[in-house]
Amino acid sequence: MTDFFPNVTKPIAYEGPDSDNPLAFRWYDADRIVAGKTMAEHLRFAVCYWHSFSWDGFDIFGAGTLDRPWINAPGDPIAAAKQKMAAAFEFFEKLGAPFWSFHDRDIAPEGASFAESVRNLAIMVDEAQAHMERTGRKLLWGTANAFSNPRYQAGAATNPDPEVFAYAAGQVCAALDATHRLGGANYVLWGGREGYETLLNTDMVREQEQLARFLTMVIEHKKKIGFSGTILLEPKPFEPTKHQYDYDVAACHAFLEKFDLMGEVRTNIEVNHATLAGHDFAHEVAAAFGAGIFGSIDANAGDDRLGWDLDRFPVSVEQMTLGMYEILKGGGFSTGGLMFDAKLRRQSIERDDLFHAHIGGMDTMARSLLAASALLQDGALSGPVADRYAGWDGDFGGQIMKGEHTLSGLRDRAVAMPEPVRASGRQEVLENVVARYIERIR
Ligand code: XUL
Ligand code: CO
């Protein structure tokens, strides 16, 4: 057992809201029962490999800043990858998050050829399997990095060159096989560079047809190998390309409907991607449940002023309560969970900062779960919403929806009727209700 985190000598424990211990949970109490399930069962926390273990703090303006001795550790690339994995599993275990997630290239170095990359991945999947058996950690999802290598400069599935499509297909096949071997609960396809910069060089209709063909092949392969996890698309409106095809949940829904892929694929909603698309997090969750394609969550956040993907750990209980409320209302997670696709600020250079970030994120989500669950159980919001639509449950509203009235019939009726009576939308009352539930969490 390695000791990359010597300051954390025992697993992070729940100590309650009055604790001042920075290395303890104040709200996340894994075994506490909330609405019939433990907090751990509701929240299904996962740590991501890439931001936490493969990123040293570099940005487009400068080199890495973070103390990450497991990155580029001495020895050959496989020995270095094994050191990194040892650090990751030491962290997962000490934090007490039950799940993790990875891209193929996070855990295994890309080789000089495709065949070597596949061999590297197989070695590291064996290594991961041993760590998972030893520590009891589980895989929330795996994915392929089909966007970093220059070969993917013009996309993977949506590349104008079928040779690149074929290479990406091979890579995703290997990553899906790896996810299956590790018992992954889901497999994610985030668009990466599946989008475009300018219509001057792009055939958008053709590229989306290619994307559908690719996804169809992924589904076929999933069935062929007997992978029982869920295939998830992760919407994002832009970055890295100017126009990403999987813009938001609505765009993914239209895409799945158009190419007859409904029922096979769901969505992995990232909070910061929702806000970049001009939506609230809660909106995207509600849209996904409405369309029957809710899958999982990347639990990070942006910044009110900055219009790029900041991947901050979640700190706003209000924002997350509204999202958790929609998740619980929709029935909660099945194969999905809350995955911290979140990274530290570049000046948070100490290894222990990784613990502080995750503890804060897990406590924020646990508090949000408690508030959301109480709101739901008391019908604090559903009651007023039902009242607001009561007319549609009555005889007249029911007749309209059953198609028993025509446009001209309603015109004749309007001629004979007084002006409809308006009712208050009561938004501020309801905002105060939410605030009260958050204040009262214990
Ligand atoms: C990129 C992003 C990815 C996906 C996995 O914005 O969120 O990390 O979650 O490829
Ligand atoms: Co993400």
Calculate the terminal CA-CA distance, rounded to whole Å: 37 Å
Beta-strand share of residues: 5-15%
Shape designation:
globular
Query: What is the overall number of helices?
Result: 17
Bound molecules: D-xylulose, cobalt (II) ion
The level 1 CATH classification of the largest domain is Alpha Beta
Strand order of the largest sheet: 5-6-7-8-10-12-13-14
The biggest sheet, with number of strands, parallel, antiparallel or mixed sense and barrel status, is: 8 strands, parallel, barrel
Mean pLDDT, to the nearest integer, reads 97
CATH superfamily heading of the largest domain: Divalent-metal-dependent TIM barrel enzymes
Low-confidence stretches: none
Number of strands: 14
Q: What structural class do you assign from the helix and strand content?
A: alpha/beta
Number of domains: 2
CATH architecture of the largest domain: Alpha-Beta Barrel
Please give a structural write-up:
The chain has 442 residues and is α/β, with parallel strands linked by helices. It has two domains: 13-378, Divalent-metal-dependent TIM barrel enzymes (TIM Barrel), CATH 3.20.20.150; 383-440, no CATH class. 47% of the residues lie in helices and 12% in strands. The protein is built from 17 helices and 14 strands. It has helices at 39-43, 49-54, 77-95, 104-107, 114-135, 162-181, 204-225, 249-258, 271-276, 281-291, 317-329, 352-377, 382-388, 390-393, 395-401, 407-416, 427-440; strands at 13-14, 24-25, 33-34, 37-38, 45-48, 99-103, 138-143, 186-190, 195-196, 230-234, 243-244, 265-270, 294-298, 338-340. It has an eight-stranded parallel beta barrel, surrounded by four helices. Strands 1-2 form a two-stranded parallel sheet. Strand 7 (138-143), helix 6 and strand 8 (186-190) form a beta-alpha-beta unit. The longest helix is centred in the last third of the chain and has 26 residues, at 352-377. The radius of gyration is 24 Å and the shape is globular. The model has no long low-confidence stretch (mean pLDDT 97). It binds D-xylulose (XUL) and cobalt (II) ion. Residues 103, 143, 188, 190, 234, 236, 270, 298, 309, 341 line the site of D-xylulose (XUL).
